[in-house]
Sequence to fold (356 residues):
Amino acid sequence: MQDVEAVVLVGGKGTRLRPLTLSAPKPMLPTAGVPFLAHLLSRIREAGIRRVVLGTSYLAETFEEHFGDGSALGLDLTYVTETEPLGTGGGIRNVAAKLSAEHIMIFNGDVLAGTDLRAVADTHRSSRADVTLHLVRVQNPRAFGCVPTDESGRVQKFLEKTEDPPTDQINAGCYVFRREVIDTIPEGRPVSVERETFPDLLASGAHVQGHVDVAYWRDMGTPGDLVHGSADLVRGVAPSAALPGPTGEAMILDGAEVASDALVFGGSTVGRGARIGSGAKIEGSMLFDGAVVAAGAVVENSVIGAGAVVEEGASVRDTVVGDRAVIGAHCELRHNLRIWPDVTLPPHGIRFSPDV
Fold:
């Protein structure tokens, strides 16, 4: 797609994912063995887009340190850093000077999706739209703002979350703009595309088109979604060309040691240099590099941070364990706990509170 460039908005602080995002931006968190952003970039490359601008802010240097100029990915990457938070619309306007193609495909950097990006671009061109939105149908649209369209697919309005939504179509966080439309977004101040840009375009009579599908889609903004999205990538439910190994029940990265009688399944990822002891059970979880799960311990639907230790017989369910934290022997953690980095919990405790 020679007439299309991509923008990926990766400036958010990822506060809902703390403590994981204290040391890395959300799009750089290890997800199925590589930074989450690598999966999105692989989809952009497969769609035939070669030039990508990353709109960065929080821990901005980490993106270029890892991806460089993008040549290793077959991409041409450019970085633009916000000096203050500008929102989605403001972030798009902030990178405008680096854009030259006729059409600009824009992505929120925290969405895992499987939609056909070429089809989205084709809808945009064939409808001659000013802006095209990827809309996905979901079973529970009450949790999202919804976007009704007419029989031709043209967007009618943008609605906030409601208990009685008129449609199951939601904004999926991928858009195509005609390049000149981006210049109409106010410059130098925070702007929300959902609350300001798109409603203003509709009010002015602009053509805003919807591309609707039922492809895989998940917002990776919470620990639960991060864990389940990573498992979907490992199991091949969510598509990606960036996986460092074959899909299956588990992804064991280089240098990891797993006891022969340990159980590792459910789309779990075991990071580089991680160790899993005899009789341990790891289900649907993410173990970052250097994590240790000792003999007989159980980890389910959880994240174990880099260098963290789960001692013998401990049980960790639906919990985020920060980097280098230590979960004492036979300690039990569950119900959406967050254990902060470098915390040590004594043995035989039972924890239900949300933060430690």
